[in-house]
Amino acid sequence: MVKMSDVAEKANVSKATVSRVLRNPETVKKTTRDKVMAIIEQMNYQPNILARQFRRSETNTILVVIPNILNTVFSHILGGIEHEAGKNGYRVLLANTNKQVEKEYEFLDHLKQRQVDGMILLSARMDKGILAEVMKQYPVVLTADYLEGIPIPTVTIDNVSSGRTATEHLIKLGHSRIAHISGPLHLLVSRDRLKGYRQALLQNNLDVDNILIQEGDFSHESGYNQMTKLLALEHPPTAVFAANDEMATGVIKAAKDHGLSVPEDLAVVGFDNVKLSAIYDPGITTIAQPMFKMGNKAMELLLQQINGDDSNKTQYVLQNELVIRESCGAKQKNHG
Amino acid sequence: MVKMSDVAEKANVSKATVSRVLRNPETVKKTTRDKVMAIIEQMNYQPNILARQFRRSETNTILVVIPNILNTVFSHILGGIEHEAGKNGYRVLLANTNKQVEKEYEFLDHLKQRQVDGMILLSARMDKGILAEVMKQYPVVLTADYLEGIPIPTVTIDNVSSGRTATEHLIKLGHSRIAHISGPLHLLVSRDRLKGYRQALLQNNLDVDNILIQEGDFSHESGYNQMTKLLALEHPPTAVFAANDEMATGVIKAAKDHGLSVPEDLAVVGFDNVKLSAIYDPGITTIAQPMFKMGNKAMELLLQQINGDDSNKTQYVLQNELVIRESCGAKQKNHG
DNA sequence: ATACTAAATGTAACCGATTACATTTTACAT
DNA sequence: ATGTAAAATGTAATCGGTTACATTTAGTAT
């Protein structure tokens, strides 16, 4: 493997000059620069990045901690991160935790060992104290998930107000008996969507009936099962707000299997606006999270930290949007 | 940042001994080993991985080249890779090409510059000659996609026979006018599934009617549009084999919008067995690709190459499986 | 106690680029 | 021609582990 000193020798200059040609071309006279570049071409010299990384102790790599790659919400965010990272010459290392906290700690070591320049968490289940300690020393951004009472740069949507928007939409359509199938309640996201649901009901002088609130786990199956339970009630709901789109499909399937039509007999609103919600029959009315943009923004904030700009350690709340399709009954069935 | 020499000094041993304690503990006497380990703990010493990587010129990182993160087939394979990599102390660097060939070349440089120990391609659009050259020198495995006439280690299913299985299933159910909506025909995968479709028809003495073969792009929309075309024919098909599950959903939606029921008026078979096919209403009969296993196997083969075992540069063909759900009419509608 | 071998540890070179600092060259004014 | 500042280049230390080889220590047999 040809190295810098080989190039230097052949070009009759010092290693330092070759290095400068590559990293600070403007400090080298044009004639020497051209000469060196020619030799580099000719010898097909590739700098040893490992040596460079070691010497400069920077990796141009960031770590993305993902609870579950198979969840399209996360892959969309990942796409946004990847895009912004690529634009800035950064590479993305993947860290799949499979929802295990221990894995989060494991990947934290990468950061501490400076194997990556920064870290974006799409899930923060680890101890808040530890995280607070880490983010004092290293660039960290949190997105998709968020925490209370710790000043970590975060990019999210407002889940409380989103939950409210979704529920209010159903109220406006004339429903008063509205159920909610939540995400796992140990997640703040889930609790906030539930909070929004409650707020909407209360603000519209509707009772909050606890029997109408069921906890799911974001899976189709849990949506199906919880909806089946709800349909067995003496006074079943006429509308359901599901905390994500996949559960919404479960809800719809359960309703159909029970002989009901959606949206005629049951109105459904989901959450996320993943492709599934557009494809499903009926199309699912949902709250759109700007997933790609969240990834972009998170990476942007991380880069600021990496480049030593600590001024921006704030929380970013991006705009969400109600996307109306067929499942809520506000729109005619229609393809596209 | 505390370094190895600090530990050595405090423990009254040489750097070499500390290094050995970490990398070859069995070569160090137990008493010294314990002493050194104690100091390491006490000083909270973290070895500088960058220095190690540089010195040993290995990264314990592999690169996965993905045409599109948002496609769940690829994320499942990625999951399998990640799992196997993690088990073996390897990290996974993500390379999203967004289907651009230039990106593939760009990421090739990572490999050449030894920034990664090996590479798994989920898409090989680059020039075969270049790829052949690269794989002589570096560990490379191809999965999901494959190429003809180049002896690169590959992990796939047999797409021809899968296409045949899917089509034969429809023939057995009594259909004789069977359409095929293919993937993009510049992909070998798509051409092979089409080939299987043709073979099945011919082997069963059925005519291949070219008007029933339409090219899609794996998206729901293309499935919808092509199906709409087919339904406008004088003799529309009674069954459709779509080259992936997402297009199958488009087919089903088009049929419904045309007033037809699936499977009663139109039988549909998809391909991939992604979650969508299980969730959709009706559930989609499909060919299961063992995606996670493909990732696992690909990583396994790559590790063999990295560890210098070149004996196994072969093609792996994994088992596919027909998963029967409601969309083909062979099974009663039924949840789960 | 002695000799010899194996085990344990130490010494120092090395990986290949980067960069602070020193030196030489160039450009320009007088 | 000469002095001076700026530009260009060179010298050499450095980053922090790893490892071939040399040396010391321990273990065993005689």
TrEMBL record, chains A, B:
Keyword annotations of the record: DNA-binding, Transcription, Transcription regulation
GO molecular function, a single term: DNA binding
Domain (HTH lacI-type): residue spans on this chain: 2-56
Keyword Transcription regulation: yes
Pfam families: LacI, Peripla_BP_3
Classification via InterPro entries: HTH_LacI, LacI/GalR-like_sensor, Lambda_DNA-bd_dom_sf, Peripla_BP_I
Official protein name in the record: LacI family DNA-binding transcriptional regulator
